[in-house]
Each structure stands twice: as C-alpha cells, then as structure tokens.
Automatic annotation (TrEMBL):
Protein name per its UniProtKB record: Oxidase ustYa
Keyword set, alphabetical order: Membrane, Oxidoreductase, Transmembrane, Transmembrane helix
Cell membrane recorded as keyword: no
Source species of the chain: Penicillium frequentans
GO process annotations (BP): mycotoxin biosynthetic process
GO function terms (MF aspect): oxidoreductase activity
Positions of transmembrane segments: 38-58
InterPro entries given in the database record: UstYa-like
Pathway field: Mycotoxin biosynthesis
Annotated family: Belongs to the ustYa family.
Pfam family, one: UstYa
Source taxon at top rank: Eukaryota
C-alpha cells in the first residue's frame, strides 16, 4: 500500500492567535450584517405601517360617513319636503310645463369626452320620465281612455303605452333600490305610517346635475 502526500498549500497554516483574530473579525462582521438587516426590517415595517395608515385615511375619506351605525344619506343639500300638487294634476299646459321644467336641455342625454364618449342618459332623468309616464297612464285610466284592447294602442301616446308603463314600474323599483336612500322620515301616529312630508331631507344638488347636463347635452337622441 502506498501513500501519496497531499499537495502543499501556498498559504501557511494559521497560527492559534491568527485564527482567533480571524474568528473575532468574522463574528463582528456577522453581527454588523445582522444589525443592518434588523435596522432595514424596522425601517420597512415603519414604512409599511405608514402606507397602510395612509390608505386607510384615503379610503375612509371616500366612504359615506356613518351616523349612529346607519349610513348617512348622500348629498349636501337640505330640502324641506312638502306636497306640491302641480306635479300630480291631470295633464294640462300647467302641469306638463312643471314636469318639463325638471329636465335639462337634451332631456338628460349627454356626451362627455372622458366619462361619456358615447351618448348616455343620466339615470335621474330616466326615472323622472318614467314617473311622468305613470301620471299620464293614471289619468288616461281615470278618463276611461285606457282599455285592455291592444288594438287601441294606436290612440295612445308613447307615454301611456302599456308596454312603456310596465317597463317603468320595474325600472323605478330597481332605481329606488340602487339609490337606497337612508333619510329618516317621521312617522304620523294617526296614520300609523309616513306621508313623506314635513321634514328636512339630505339630497344631492339636482340643480348642479341639471347645469352639468346642459353643458354636456347631446342632440343625438
């Protein structure tokens, strides 16, 4: 059996003292790296906390404020609710003019380069249109002009056409559910219900909506 000698290293073997110093230097370097890593983790944690807090503030500013656990109604205008019989009258120049005054130029159809590049309709005016149609068909029924005979459709306007009115019932239902108005109405004890009148309601500024619609109205419809 023969033995081969290991190749000699160009580096001399480390003495005991040199090895100790080298180990100490390595330990200090490792400690410094751990310290730097810990500092960066702390900095990152603080930064993340600041970002999360900032996002919470921004998000909170965009959420509807709460009032005693209930979502506060949207809007910035206070409107006192009172009965206006003009809008309930039989179709006439006076009542029709009152309804027409609610609509902007273009009847609520708008175009806007950013939010409505194609002609679109504002929901509020579609709802008002439907409600006015229900007024028309109500008085047509009262006057005996509305019959169940489908052949009589030729004598009816679009506003009182049964197909149109049926559309309006469900459209208004879904619109009311979509807006989910959370204003609180006072109860009339004698009626054991609400009339909807005699209290101040928080509303969106419809005048501003109407002004915007007139600035961006479309004549394509």
């Amino acid at each position: 059996m023969s033995f081969e000698s290991a190749p000699k290293s160009d580096e001399p073997l480390m003495s005991g003292e040199d090895g100790y110093l080298e180990n100490q230097a390595g330990y200090k370097s490792s400690q410094a790296q751990l310290k730097r890593s810990y500092i960066w983790k702390v900095i990152f944690g603080i930064f993340a906390a600041v970002v999360i807090f900032g996002l919470g503030v921004v998000t909170g500013n965009h959420l509807p404020p709460r009032r005693q656990g209930l979502l506060a109604p949207e809007g910035n205008v206070k409107v006192f609710m009172e009965y206006n019989s003009t809008f309930t009258l039989h179709p006439s120049p006076e009542s029709d003019a009152a309804w027409d005054s609610l609509f902007p130029k273009g009847k609520g159809f708008v175009r806007h380069d950013e939010i409505a590049p194609e002609t679109s309709g504002l929901v509020v005016y579609h709802g008002l249109h439907c409600l006015n149609a229900l007024r028309g068909v109500y008085y047509a029924s009262v006057d005996g002009l509305q019959t169940r005979d489908m052949e009589d459709h030729a004598q009816m306007s679009h506003m009182t056409d049964p197909h149109h009115v049926r559309h309006c019932f469900d459209y208004l239902r879904q619109s009311l559910m979509c807006s989910a108005d959370t204003n609180l109405e006072p109860v009339t004890k004698e009626l054991k219900g609400v009339t909807g009148w005699g209290f101040t309601r928080t509303c969106r500024d419809l005048d501003s909506v109407k002004a915007w619609a007139e600035e961006n109205w479309s004549n394509e419809i």
